[in-house]
Amino acid sequence: MNTFGDPTIWLPFVFAGLMGLSILIYVVLDGFDLGVGVLFPFADEDEKDRMIATIGPFWDANETWLVLAVGLLLVAFPAAHGAILTALYLPVAIMLIGLIMRGVAFEFRAKAPAPHKRLWNNTFFAGSLMTSLSQGFMLGMYIMGLEWTVMNAAFSLLTAVFLTVGYSFIGATWVIHKTDGALQGKSVDWAKGGIWGLVLGIGLISAATPLVSTRIFDKWFSWPEALLLSPLPVLSALLVFALWWMLRRMPFSNDRLSWLPFAAASSLWVMAFIGMAYSFYPYVVPEKLTIYEAASAPESLFIILIGTLFVLPTILAYTVLAYTVFRGKATELRYD
Amino acid sequence: MMETLLLSRIQFAANISFHILFPTITIALGWVLLFFKVRYSQTGQERWMEAYRFWVKIFALSFAMGVVSGITMSFQFGTNWPGFMEKVGNIAGPLLAYEIMTAFFLEAVFLGIMLFGFRRVPNWVHTGATFLVAFGTLMSTFWIIVLNSWMHTPQGFEMRDGVAHATDWFAIIFNPSMPYRFAHMVLASFLTVSFLIAGVSAFRWLIGGRTEGVRVALKTAVFGAALLMPVQIFLGDMHGLNTKEFQPAKVAAMEGHWETGGNVPLILFALPDQEARENRFEIGIPNLASFILTHEWDGVVKGLNDFVAEDGTVLHPRVAPVFWSFRVMIGTGMAMLMLSWVASFMMLRRKRGVEGLPKPLLYALVGMSFSGWIATLAGWYTTEIGRQPWLVQGVMTTAEAVADVPAPMVLSTLIAYLVVYGLLLSAYIYVIFYLARKMSRGEDIGTRIAPAPAAAPNAIPAE
Fold this sequence. Notes:
By secondary structure, chain A is mainly alpha-helical. In chain A, 79% of the residues lie in helices and 1% in strands.
């Protein structure tokens, strides 16, 4: 077990990486299907069916990444799991109820009597909104160090709104890719309307994070780190400009490059996430508990790691398989 | 702190009770669907596919309910029970991680292909996806039962600085109560599904939807239940003997038995009085409990009074809930046994099949549609409340694990959960019978049932 150096150092690091990866995959994948739910009120009845069809085969697996992320937090950093989740007790409960509502509404809206469909559509929207807002709120509280003060709550309300708009943006880019015709045109407009939420959100978090902690400030604004890190903001700015340029000209003829906004939006999330991860490392509970202090015993982490090395590539492979089976424009969902 | 503890326990019980309803259906229904699908592929008979198409919708609905209520569970550990992972996280963690990695993703990813991929993939891939979903639910059951069983019969670890460290993973996974609990739960799932299918099919039959698909589903379910019920009773007895060996306090509470001694009667009815430490209005069959538990008429059985420490600390569970949950489980099980046997006998008599079932019996089947849920929940209450005051038997108490969240906060989320669960449960049951009614009227229930290519099930992948 000591072949690669001290296991109490590299194992927590590897698990923090795996957890980060799961969170990143989650915010991109469930981000788009939550976003589709948030956009529901802007669509008419037929469009709602098609929007559901774009996420139907995927949403369940997308949410599993959240279970994996919180599962890794639970198993690899149990002390942090308790500290973070008890501090975020209420937003977590709201998120869970939101997730329940949207998950079941998805099924009920297709199976309940026609007059109830409206109700379940509204449930789907409300659940998606509650989930997005509470995740944004938790993000804000996490950045502010999990302290419940009026200032922090106000800041978190802002991040809640921006993350929700950000989700609806990536959701819109997904609908651009999976649909055509009028709905595609509409979703281009949604994406144009949503991109600012994302930009403001990333801007706000980038500005606030270094101000909360001098440690994070020094990590970003000292020499030569500032130079080495400069590609992050520069690339992000370029991505935003490219997205804006593209969206103004979409849809392209023959539906060329309809996947590009989604890919660019995902890349933007990746940039933002790397920035966050760099800021907070090595802390898992901001400024209180490092990944090394919070980690489980090495022998337990090791046995999970062995499984992970086999299972994670398999999971990725059949996730790719599912996305390949359902590639192309979304068609009517049918069981037969 | 006491109030927070009680409210947190009620909240966890509410969440996990709501959650377990749906895995109890999907664990077995996945395999039943695979059976329908394989029979269709073998025989080309449309009736198997008709049964598949109806029940796959119930499966999809149940699965969604299970997934979202399961996500709640994974957060509850942190929000309400942080002490659990801090103390035994080194053991519980890897087991949960393996459940997520080997089961959750498998079922979630292939569910998409199973539900919506019939026209997009070759038939064998679709059957394969159905198998992987069923297999995934079983794997999930395995890992979670391993963890739960370890909490009842922990072994393979040592305590260092107040934290459990794994020493022998084989001993942890194959802990003494795991095989019994796993088999008992999987069979419970098959029985729950059998009665659900039988009940809903009987309902469709009664209101005039007498199709071949209904007939075949009803027969499969009733015969399945009649065959599995005795096996379940046998397994339950084995599990009980295992519990007597490792958790005698639980068995004493189940039996409502206070004083250690021989010639113990089997108590049918009593009102256990925790404060007076005795039963009131006791009705029992002499010596039968001794015989069941020790297989000797005068066998000595430990009583609850053996589990009170010298300083008066009670180290056994509250008796009444365990005593009564156990009786509800047994009573429901007996009713299930009787009904499935009578119905099977009627169908076999002069080979009359479903036509041989008299109306009252069909109504009884409808009434028992969710009997599996009642028995399963009662069984879980027996074993889980029976473990109290311990969270991990002999290692940590439930009180040690609870989070210091203010009681009003727990109460508010508890009420919110209960409201949501109540509404969803009503909607779930309503929609099942709504789909059944719609199907019986011969209406499209959202799948655009096209005449299936009976002879060439492979000629499908046209988009």
